[in-house]
Amino acid sequence: MAYVLQIDFKMLGPFGDEMAEAFSDLAKSINEEEGFMWKIWTESPETNEAGGIYIFETKETAEKYLDMHSKRLAGFGITDINVKIFAINEQLTKITHGPLN
């Protein structure tokens, strides 16, 4: 069963094209994480927030990534993060065209 990992936190930027340029190496490295399937990057310059919606193959791989990523964010000075992990109902997600492959 696949799992969603939702993370968001306060961040003063960069956003948009600058964020894409600044974090492209990080994005490439995430592709190598165990159990990682895909990520949607989120940002709100109006509220100074950023984060992402991740899909992992198992709850264990989502939790393992969260542990590592929390430490990485702390290294950037970001310690107040909001996190949720949800199981995905794959049958309903397929009906609504959710990409689980």
Supply the CATH architecture.
Answer: 2-Layer Sandwich
Mean pLDDT over the residues: 94
Largest β sheet strand count, sense and barrel closure:
4 strands, antiparallel
* Approximate strand percentage: 25-35%
Overall domain count: 1
Roughly how many Å apart are the termini? 12 Å
Per the CATH scheme, the topology name is Alpha-Beta Plaits
- Uncertain runs: none
Number of strands: 4
Q: Helical amount among residues, as a percent range?
A: 25-40%
- Strands of the widest sheet, in order across it, are 2-3-1-4
Keyphrases for this structure?
101 residues; alpha+beta; 4 helices; 37% helix; globular; YdhR; Alpha-Beta Plaits
Q: What is the structure about, briefly put?
A:
Keywords: Monooxygenase, Oxidoreductase. The protein contains four helices and four strands, in the order βααββαβα.
List the topology elements:
Blueprint: E1 3-10, H1 16-22, H2 24-30, E2 36-44, E3 49-56, H3 59-75, E4 81-87, H4 90-95
Antiparallel strand pairs: 1-3, 1-4, 2-3
Task: Give a written overview of the molecule.
- Keywords: Monooxygenase, Oxidoreductase.
- This protein has 101 residues and is of the alpha+beta class.
- The chain has one domain: Alpha-Beta Plaits, CATH 3.30.70.
- It contains four helices and four strands, in the order E-H-H-E-E-H-E-H.
- The longest helix is centred in the middle third of the chain and has 17 residues, at 59-75.
- The chain starts with a strand and ends in a 6-residue tail after the last helix.
- The model has no long low-confidence stretch (mean pLDDT 94).
